[in-house]
Amino acid sequence: MGNTDQSHPSPNTYNFNSSSSGASHRVGIPPPQPFVKSLKNTLKETLFPDDPLRQFKNQPTRKKFALAQRYVFPILEWGPRYTLEFFKADLIAGITIASLAIPQGISYAKLANLPAIQGLYSSFVPPLIYAMMGSSRDVAVGTVAVGSLLTGSMLSAAVNPVENPTLYLHLAFTATLFTGIFEAALGIFRLGFIVDFLSHATIVGFMGGAATVVCLQQLKGIFGLDHFTHDTDVISVLRSVFSQTHQWRWESAVLGLCSKKKPNMFWVSAMAPLTSVILGSLLVYLTHAEKHGVQVKGINPTSIMDMEFGSKYLTTAIRTGIVTGVIALAEGIAVGRSFAMFKNYNIDGNKEMIAFGFMNIAGSFTSCYLTTGPFSRTAVNFNAGCKTAVSNIVMAFAVMLTLLFLTPLFHYTPLVVLSSIIIAAMLGLIDYEAAIHLYHVDKFDFLVCMSAYVGVVFANIEIGLVLAVGLSILRVLLFVARPRTLVLGNIPDSKVYRSVEQYPNTNNVPGVLILEIDAPIYFANSSYLRERISRWIDDEEDKLKSSGETEMQYVILDMSAVGNIDTSGISMLDEVKKIMDRRSLKLALANPGAEVMKKLNKAKFIEKIGQEWLFLTVGEAVGACNYLMHTQCKQKLSDEDSQKYSNNV
Amino acid sequence: MGNTDQSHPSPNTYNFNSSSSGASHRVGIPPPQPFVKSLKNTLKETLFPDDPLRQFKNQPTRKKFALAQRYVFPILEWGPRYTLEFFKADLIAGITIASLAIPQGISYAKLANLPAIQGLYSSFVPPLIYAMMGSSRDVAVGTVAVGSLLTGSMLSAAVNPVENPTLYLHLAFTATLFTGIFEAALGIFRLGFIVDFLSHATIVGFMGGAATVVCLQQLKGIFGLDHFTHDTDVISVLRSVFSQTHQWRWESAVLGLCSKKKPNMFWVSAMAPLTSVILGSLLVYLTHAEKHGVQVKGINPTSIMDMEFGSKYLTTAIRTGIVTGVIALAEGIAVGRSFAMFKNYNIDGNKEMIAFGFMNIAGSFTSCYLTTGPFSRTAVNFNAGCKTAVSNIVMAFAVMLTLLFLTPLFHYTPLVVLSSIIIAAMLGLIDYEAAIHLYHVDKFDFLVCMSAYVGVVFANIEIGLVLAVGLSILRVLLFVARPRTLVLGNIPDSKVYRSVEQYPNTNNVPGVLILEIDAPIYFANSSYLRERISRWIDDEEDKLKSSGETEMQYVILDMSAVGNIDTSGISMLDEVKKIMDRRSLKLALANPGAEVMKKLNKAKFIEKIGQEWLFLTVGEAVGACNYLMHTQCKQKLSDEDSQKYSNNV
Predict the structure, then answer these.
(1) In a mutagenesis test of the A interface, which of B203, B525, B527 is the best target, namely the one with the most A β-carbons within 10 Å?
(2) Does residue B46 lie within any of the structural domains?
(3) Residue numbers in A near B595 (CB within 8 A)
(4) Any coiled-coil ranges, and where (chains A, B) (predicted)?
């Protein structure tokens, strides 16, 4: 150090001479914060980013209680302001979605290998709960194809729904209960951000894959095959389709195609299913094609006693519940959020989770299975001009009436029509434009999307999800493990320094290497950064040697983008400092953030490099270096002069 | 947009008037790079950060071949330059570490529940391989306590070493083979960075925990107990110690304490073990205390035929091999690196992995088990003044001589002396100062360290590691999932804008909110950032309302620290833009990086906010906003004047 210090006078002097900077420009070391306080802040930011208790601040206890009630039951908030105009709109919307809900409910129930009636039950109780607790005005509650398919595939793996229907049904209820508990818990413990890890790309690929699988599954119905595989992957499905060509039924195929063409306008597609169901049923009644029965049962019977806590399949139920819960939440919240965007209101993710959770818990007690806010139904609801969650209540009562009086109608509903309804709904979910957009904007997101799609289509839903989420997380880790380091240059006639790659018109400062580190310095990247920085120095020195310019004397690390640092990172900086001392280079840091300063200070690193080598901006750092190099030159010259002088004497 | 645009004239005009900025200051959109090229760069940075092929650039093929040879066998590089002085130094160092290697080898073999002779074998062949392939001059190869313990605990779980010694031994060889293959593969596929995920904090906690466990295990020897638990956790160990108090042997305890006191100087600690072994053996020979036999067997017999590929324990062997491999690598490379630091030379992580890998493969074929570069032995080697890897060769031959002629000496080695040697070695590994340092500098690292320690001590080694690594990764994910957003203010008499928290003397710009985002904008944080940004805006507007200042008109996002963005992030920015349009606020971006610009451009987001709302620095953005607000005021005034005029008329 001693030597290097001599050859490098401290820039203090500069700091005082130069006009462009002064004492005020010293890099601030934030005052030490009590650990508990900082911990509290971190937890608050992590778990309460939306600051839900804000409204409760300085309110009388009475008011607080009222607010709390409204917080849990938003209906208390908008209920009093509810008008007749609203009701008219909600009535229409409610009937529209009911007309969609009934056939969809039946079809999706089949995906879950459940009796069709469960699908109808699931459109009665849960919507009522959501109407009271949900914070979205547009979400229409009901069963979802993907969730149903997932339930079906995961439970069928453990119990055969054909051989042992009761146990299977009860397991479905149990799974739904756990879904509800899981969702509510996530909301209550403010862990909503877990859903964020399902990225946009993942959901696109996943939905597309699931839709493809569902469509393939429907070939059974379209071709009217009796035996069909229970696997969901393309290969085994296609095999079991083409292995039975002799069984293909032309009439069902035709019937399917007729009712399959997908209308564009929402209300048409909303009415279409019901119409096609009725027509189809009539047609079947006349032609006596294959039947698919729904027994009349009245409204939801209780199923509290049906939970399979004792059985050895409990773990299956729990696993199913949690996996489907995550998917259902992801879809429900994404849907709610996107429609809230249209109408310019915010919805609270954690609150939504609690609502979804309780709606599923209540559902599991009343013979319903997994429900959420499906995209298709919500879109119809929104487009039919719903104003509040009352449209859900309307739908619920419409379904109730159906349950009480109209179910005989479904006695003749042909499988093929249901299949075609599902396919029509599914085709809308294969969003290839989005995939193309991903490809153009972000190749890695496209990769994630494709891996989700391929995983779901060729293996199964879980593998697809794990693949996609794993990749997305890997990307985050790689971003930190391999941060970009940029060489900065000076932008002409300014004190600004920017990446020479991005701004080719920058000119570099002779004798000074300026590096920007583009990520927090953590254990995961500390050794890489050490290697990389010394490599930058090598390259620079090679370049200078070849061009014979002034040798390098200073290295400035621009820490603006270094959000945080850990102990491994600090020891990395230590090593870099040592390496530079060996090469008699001086290390300067520009604009280290508060967190970083705090840690560097505690680790005594600032003492090591010297407070005077910390600068507020790269510009000032370069200024100081130039000043010092200048003074050195003068010194050298004067030394030479004095020598000449002595020689002359 | 139309309206907002009217109320906000474009800042173009400003850009041309203002002196401090001009056309040259436009934010550059990097030229579109062919996907393959960028992918190539990414892969290069990820897998070849140290650019190993650098030296091969523009060399004749002949030279290239020679270089390649040297790359694989560094001995070819330094061998020719080897001198007699070097040899003298290496000879002394070699003998010193041999004197440590022999008793350590025996003791550690016991930790792995292997015959003591395996410990000696393991100090013969592997060092020779490493001497040829290793790139470190200081690493002394041998077995390690932690690795041995890990092998012991993991294999004993599957096979009882007492009942089925041969199978157990063969499993150990198989595990070692897989360790070797795994390590070599990591090196060859350039996956060295996986080791980086064992952070400094993790290793400190892990070593301490392992050392504690090992010490506890030695109580068996110290108290001369016959029956002892095979579990490694504190509770069961202490139970089995105090359940047999009646068996405690005072003489062995005394003997242990005598040979246990830990000397400070390295060469003493280097000689101490051998001396204590010899003395101990004599003492035992005279007092006829318990015996611990080592059969004379000559040098390493081959064990290629002993691999247990067929057996049902293969998976256990593979798991053990990989887990121990990771640990061994982590220690070996960390040790090599730290001593290379002292002598100012670099070692190549991937190269080291290949060396360690082949040394273990060769070892597994010659009756050796897991070896690496243990800290204690390397430290002794370094301190004894080794110059090159030749000291390993010397040690190997010293051990060979021992194997051939001296093993009878160990016939009487008392268990207690070995135990005390181990304990002495272990106590050095419990680095509580480091833990305290962690606590002071970085609470989270301390948490990681402690979780590793507690996990290892109270559960087992794997749980401890998984816990610590999981926490470390969670931290990285949380950093990205909950990035800090900072409000910036202007630093007096400068164009610099910094966090108001860190620099309390900053003054904020009326009518403008400046936010800095401190992490890449990814799926994991996009929804959080949306919430947070709108909350910042709310807070600011509340503040302004209460203080009755000029209302907010502009929001500037400082993107300097945003290293990258994905499609979820872009749609988040879209939503933020919409939110602001609704509140008739203008959004400006300052200093977006190359990656970000590329993606924003592809996603057409730049068109949406308008190229003129991108600024090189926060300063320029603020300048533009002020200019616009000023012109607006003037406009308003003139309008009022004209109105007055018309009124007057």
Answers:
(1) B527
(2) no
(3) 484
(4) none
Residues of A in contact with B564 (CB under 8 A): 479
Are A312 and A365 within one domain? yes
* Chain pair A-B, CB pairs under 8 angstroms: 241
Chain B residues in contact with A199 by the CB 8 A cut-off are: 522-524, 566-568
The structure tokens listed for B68 are 């390649």
Tell me: do B385 and B490 sit in the same domain.
Answer: no
Q: Is A492 close to B20, i.e. CB distance below 8 A? A: no
As a whole number of angstroms, the distance between CA A115 and CA B244 comes to: 64
**Domain-terminating residue out of A477, A497, A522:** A477
Q: Do A445 and A552 share a domain, yes or no? A: no
Q: What is the pLDDT of residues A479-502, one digit of tens each?
A: 888 888 899 999 888 888 998 888
pLDDT of residue B622: 92
Cβ burial, residue A80 (10 Å; 0-12/13-18/19+): exposed
Contacts 24+ apart (CB under 8 A), B304-308: B304/B365, B306/B169, B306/B170, B306/B173, B306/B174, B307/B170, B307/B173, B307/B174, B307/B177, B307/B364, B308/B167, B308/B170, B308/B171, B308/B173, B308/B174
Q: Which residue of B has its CA nearest to A38?
A: B443
**Residue A207 sits in the same domain as residue A330:** yes
Answer whether residue A118 is part of any domain: yes
- Mean pLDDT over B68-87 rounds to 88
Answer yes or no: is B37 within a domain.
no
pLDDT of residue B224: 64
User: Between A193, A444, A567, which is nearest B445 by CB?
Assistant: A567
Among A417, A442, A477, where does a domain finish? Answer: A477
Asked whether the beta carbons of residue B441 and residue A602 sit closer than 8 angstroms, the reply is yes
Please give the pLDDT value at position B376: 74
Structure token pair of residue A20: 């462009």
pLDDT of A155 higher than 60: yes
Distance, in Å, from the CA atom of A18 to the CA atom of A617, rounded to the nearest integer, reads 14
Range with the poorest average pLDDT among A133-142, B53-62, B593-602 = B53-62
How far is the alpha carbon of A618 from chain B, nearest alpha carbon, in Å? 11
**What is the least distance, in Å, from the CA of B292 to any CA of chain A?**
43
Closest partner residue to B492 among A20, A24, A30, by Cβ?
A24
Residues B261 and B388 in one domain: yes
Compute the radius of gyration of chain B from its Cα atoms. Answer: 33
Is A56 domain-assigned? no
For residue A295, pLDDT beyond 60: no
Residue A510: give its domain's CATH number: 3.30.750.24
Query: Å from B479 to nearest chain A CA?
Result: 8
Instruction: Report residue B388: phi and psi, to 5°.
Output: -140, -175
pTM over 0.95: no
How far is A565 from chain B, CA to nearest CA, in Å? Answer: 9
- Based on the fold, state whether residues A151 and A25 are members of the same structural domain: no
Whether A268 and A341 map to the same domain: the answer is yes
Distance CA B94, CA B90 (A): 6
Does the structure's ipTM exceed the value 0.90? no
CB contact under 8 Å between B441 and A599, yes or no, is yes
Residues A590 and A559: beta-carbon distance below 8 Å? yes
Question: Both tokens of residue B383?
Answer: 């301190």
Q: Which of B30, B491, B594 sits opposite A24 (nearest CB)?
A: B491
Tokens for A469, please give them: 């989420």
* DSSP one-letter string for B326-353: HHHHHHHHHHHHHHHHHTT----HHHHH
Distance from CA of A232 to the nearest CA of B (A): 28
Indicate the residue of A193, A504, A566 with minimum beta-carbon distance to B481.
A193
Of B51, B441, B567, nearest to A603 by CB-CB distance is: B441
Determine the average pLDDT of the residues in A515-541: 88
Containing structural domain, residue A341:
81-477
Residue A297 has pLDDT above 80, yes or no: no
Q: Give yes or no: residues A335 and A471 share one domain.
A: yes
